[in-house]
Amino acid sequence: MITDLPDIQQDKPSITIPIGQVGVENVELPFKLESKYGGFHQLIANVSMGTNLDKDTKGISMSRLIRTLKPYLDLPLKHKLIKLILEDIRENVGGSSSFMKFEFRFPIIKKSIKSDNEFPLYYKCRFEGQLYPNINIHSVFDFYQGVIVQYASYCPCSNELCNHLQTQGSNGFPHNQRSFANILVESRKSHYIWLEDLIEAAELAVINLPYPIIKREDEQEIARVAAQNPMFVEDAMRNISVAINDIKGVRDWIIKCSHQESIHTSEAIAINWKGIKDGFDGRRFI
Amino acid sequence: MITDLPDIQQDKPSITIPIGQVGVENVELPFKLESKYGGFHQLIANVSMGTNLDKDTKGISMSRLIRTLKPYLDLPLKHKLIKLILEDIRENVGGSSSFMKFEFRFPIIKKSIKSDNEFPLYYKCRFEGQLYPNINIHSVFDFYQGVIVQYASYCPCSNELCNHLQTQGSNGFPHNQRSFANILVESRKSHYIWLEDLIEAAELAVINLPYPIIKREDEQEIARVAAQNPMFVEDAMRNISVAINDIKGVRDWIIKCSHQESIHTSEAIAINWKGIKDGFDGRRFI
Amino acid sequence: MITDLPDIQQDKPSITIPIGQVGVENVELPFKLESKYGGFHQLIANVSMGTNLDKDTKGISMSRLIRTLKPYLDLPLKHKLIKLILEDIRENVGGSSSFMKFEFRFPIIKKSIKSDNEFPLYYKCRFEGQLYPNINIHSVFDFYQGVIVQYASYCPCSNELCNHLQTQGSNGFPHNQRSFANILVESRKSHYIWLEDLIEAAELAVINLPYPIIKREDEQEIARVAAQNPMFVEDAMRNISVAINDIKGVRDWIIKCSHQESIHTSEAIAINWKGIKDGFDGRRFI
Amino acid sequence: MITDLPDIQQDKPSITIPIGQVGVENVELPFKLESKYGGFHQLIANVSMGTNLDKDTKGISMSRLIRTLKPYLDLPLKHKLIKLILEDIRENVGGSSSFMKFEFRFPIIKKSIKSDNEFPLYYKCRFEGQLYPNINIHSVFDFYQGVIVQYASYCPCSNELCNHLQTQGSNGFPHNQRSFANILVESRKSHYIWLEDLIEAAELAVINLPYPIIKREDEQEIARVAAQNPMFVEDAMRNISVAINDIKGVRDWIIKCSHQESIHTSEAIAINWKGIKDGFDGRRFI
Asked: Which helix (H) or strand (E) holds C284?
């Protein structure tokens, strides 16, 4: 009979100190995500989750984490479902706090800039929830949402130097390159921000975007728009910072922009954060 | 003449907000590192560095970061040299704060557990320095050191279940696997901790280690020691937490252990931190 | 009007040599895959595709590759659909040959070894098709299928050394570790092999598998089975080689096994291939 | 005494089939490499090596691979040393053939395009040797050398579309991006090609290069040169193919170019190979 088997996790540990987070990482599973524009996507998530561990317990049951999660896989994922799962984990696995992260690729149908073409573009996104007690409160629930947005950055300095070349009867091409904005926001209590809204806010801020299908008329329009909007990594960061800060429901944010320079082997980067008390801080290693 | 060329970084930005960190990432360079046991290693670092940016400046000169760094490449790298470089960066590039990270692979000659064999083992390490003004103080210098240590973790639960099998006249092998401890410490002011000391403290705490050369006599001894020291990820974390906390010169620490389970496709993880005010916090996304 | 725009791809190149393969890589898209056990999975593929380029054409239209592919996204993917797409690409983009690769994660519901638990496990898989003319034949179509299977390898040598320890009144744990078999097969003409069959053949051959949900009764059974089946990387390779070679519909195969040693920082590997004329050859850099 | 310990590798395997390659991967070690311009670099290699395995032997001694390699670590690495090591491995470990791969980062001092600045740039390189018997010959030795060269690619189509914009009184920026050429050559018997020569040949062919230090005068010159040399991935491939094919001592070659498009999330790629009998073939999965 099963209950005869030894259960060593229940033992007292030889070193009695608590551990901040214990759990599993890299669990792959199917899940459903609602689209802002109607309907649901069937997606694949890479999940980590766990609890804290008090000083007197040797270990948690890792398999109970997975079994607790299982019944929720058919329900559309949102902040409220994550809160439910976290409460359930705390109850089943033990611990006074619990945490959970979903990382996944999320598709948006992307129209070409001019021609009449559409094709999905996948964005790396994440949800992260934390449930923990605070002074006098049994359950504080913090919810984080992240997106990575690719854009093209055209160098303003190189642009000026090309203009200068033209005054000398010569000609130049300003360098540009693939660039990424990695955005993480903390949502205000009981607020869900559509991933589509986060992505669109960032894309509006950086202007020069990648497209799945580019015909010649599109390529020309992309080049025309680019010439109007050269941006240093600092410019891109300022634009995105303001755009994200202005989204209703965003309580705190941290952003990393990385320009994969075509004329360097290194990247130009900028990291910025809102700067609220006990909030994100780029010096503390995002 | 050069000074005729436009310098658009000096312009005022259209959005006047400051940026926490601006710089470069993924600069590869040669450097020298002193060994605790005498002599110097010639190594290759992957470097990021930069400054903050005040609200009224459009951008920094990225190339000035590299040019500032260059004269220091022949000097042995330590916390004091990093502080000097950071002061120089702040002076040459501008900004009230500066930061710098070195990531590299560091060799230690590893003796086999029993046989008379030696071979180098490389450890992923990092140094990180931050220089910034604080109330009334022009220059606070924070210094961080990191190491990643591989070990083998043998499951105590599986071990107990194998013992139970033997009572039934059967036999079992407890599962074990490659495991990693990712350790980051903040050093006390003007303190340098030998990387060898960080690594050895962690290795003593986890006991079951990888070796470059393993003859049969070694393999038997490894198996013998393993049977005395099964560890959950929670056990490994507790052992390492105490070991790192006890190192003189460590002001704060955060540790992530990851066990790459042989019987799962997911990892068992634990994250722990000292918990001092304004210190590391695993819930804030290391 | 669009046709006014210059189309430089039609120019003659300055260097008139042919190119073996030209195309795009890392296109993400949704697709449907039939399950052997009924029904269809909605999955995400990472796709590369292209054509050869004759010596007198400057370049291909990359966007035409994507536009050609688009109408096929709603149809269930199989070898015959890939052949259709490749014929369409050759017609629309030009070239006498075309190629296409789909890489994706494919779920199989995995039952626990003893307890009554089920959870999906995702496998990295790939399809690859090549269409090209051969002597007197307009269209040879080669089709390749790949899967990566994780398993646990328990060291037979360590096992023997532990048995020897017991004869001396001592005790040891044989080391084991996460291991992977990367399998690529060429299918016989007009043959489709279920990915489930490839995966199951490999899993039967290596015996010790990972499971999503492992309760104590499962963990004990896993340990019991492990003790009956220790395997070197060479043993695992021989078992898998025979198992894959025996699958009906497999014309050629190449396999790489990698054991992520818990007592080493390096991996033990084996690479094997069938050895038919003009077939796979591990010495030619898979 | 050691010889009492069981040695199970000597057993006969239950399945008597040979294995093409058995060995270790991901061994890190220090080594010396001669520079074409005088002196030696102290570098770090990631090494794989092994032998074939005949049908009647259960396994090889992995630790003997490392111990065989060890005495050679102080000698400058070249094709002849690799051949010596391979002969030694074949003798010590057994097997009729042996193989070995060194992957490492190799520095070249890079001068800025105009200003008087110098800084090292690291290139990913590899050496690969294979020793095997052929009809009537005990030892054929094949030697391969690889380099990865980064460059900037400026799109000729986008350029033409920008010129067209100007005829309409508007303005555009042609897109460009970080690009890579991954080059692998087989050297003629007893021929060593300086890595510097391979890299310089490729860099001359693609023209637009990254630089560690770029002042404004450099950035302008880079833009000026770029405007003279737009290249599709097909153009870059043709230029490099001819350049590498012309290097004395190159017997066979295969090249992959990848342009990390700034206006796409996918890469434009080209793969080309010389096409000699039994030589490299891109359709056989490099």
From this structure: none
Which residues of chain D make contact with A155, given a CB cutoff of 8 A?
A: 219
D250: tokens are 């190159």
Whether A165 and A172 have beta carbons less than 8 Å apart is answered as: yes
Nearest by Cα to C158 from B46, D52, B173: B173
In this structure, how many other beta carbons lie within 10 angstroms of the beta carbon of residue A189?
11
Instruction: Dig out the tokens for C116 from the structure.
Output: 């009554």
**C234–D13 C-beta distance less than 8 A:** yes
Phi, psi of D104 (to 5 degrees): -160, 170
Q: Calculate how close chain C gets to B216, using CA atoms only, in Å.
A: 8
Under DSSP, is residue A5 helix (H, G, I), strand (E, B) or coil?
coil
When the pLDDT of each residue in chain B is averaged and rounded to a whole number, the result is 95
The CA distance from C233 to the nearest CA of chain A, in Å, is 25
Chain B positions touching C203 (Cβ under 8 A) are none
Average pLDDT of A243-259?
97
How much is the ipTM here?
Answer: 0.95
Q: Which residues fall within 8 angstroms of residue C38, CB to CB, at 6 or more apart?
A: none
Judge: D216–B5 Cβ closer than 8 Å, yes or no. Answer: yes
Query: Does residue B200 carry a pLDDT above 90?
Result: yes
pLDDT of residue A1: 43
DSSP B16-33: ---EEEEEEEEEEEEEEE
pLDDT in tens, A189-229: 878 999 999 999 999 999 999 999 999 999 999 999 999 99
Residue C156 and residue C229: Cα distance in Å, rounded?
8
Mean of pLDDT values over C159-169: 95
Q: Which residue has the tokens 């490729």?
A: D202
pLDDT of B3 reads: 59
What is the distance between the alpha carbons of residues C149 and C141, in angstroms, rounded to a whole number?
27
Other CB atoms within 10 A of residue D17 CB: 14
Q: How far is C216 from chain B (nearest CA, A)?
A: 8
Q: Which of C171, C177, C220 sits opposite B172 (nearest CB)?
A: C220
The confidence score (pLDDT) of residue A3 equals 59
Q: Is the pTM of this model over 0.95?
A: yes
Q: Is C138 exposed, middle or buried (0-12, 13-18, 19+ CB in 10 A)?
A: exposed
pLDDT digits (tens, 9 = 90+) for A52-78: 999 999 999 999 999 999 999 999 999
Classify D31 as helix, strand or coil. Answer: strand
Q: Which of D121, D78, A25 is nearest to B268 (CA)?
A: A25
The whole-angstrom distance between B44's CA and the closest CA on chain D is 8
Of B270, B278, B249, nearest in space to B144 by CA: B249
pLDDT in the model for residue D136: 83
Residues from chain D contacting residue B33 (CB–CB below 8 Å): none
Q: Point out which residues pair with B48 in neighbouring strands.
A: B101
- Location of structure tokens 């983009």: C93
If residue A263 lies in a helix (H) or strand (E), which one and from where to where? none
Secondary structure (DSSP) of C126-170: EEEEEEEEETTEEEEEEEEEEEEEEEEEE-HHHHHHHHHHHHTT-
Which residues on chain A are in Cβ contact (under 8 Å) with B275? Answer: 20
How far is C-alpha B178 from the geometric centre of its chain's CA atoms?
18
> Cα–Cα distance between D109 and D211 in angstroms, integer?
10
The model's confidence at residue B153, banded by pLDDT at 50, 70 and 90, is very high
**Do A113 and A121 touch, CB atoms closer than 8 A?**
no
Number of Cβ atoms within 10 Å of the Cβ of A55: 12
Name C282's Cβ contacts closer than 8 Å, sequence gap at least 6.
C254, C256, C271, C272, C273, D20, D21
Average pLDDT, chain D: 95
Phi, psi of B125 (to 5 degrees): -130, 165
Does the distance separating the beta carbons of B121 and D29 come in below 8 Å?
no
pLDDT per residue as tens digits for the range C247-262 = 999 999 999 999 999 9
Residue D173 phi, psi (nearest 5): -110, 120
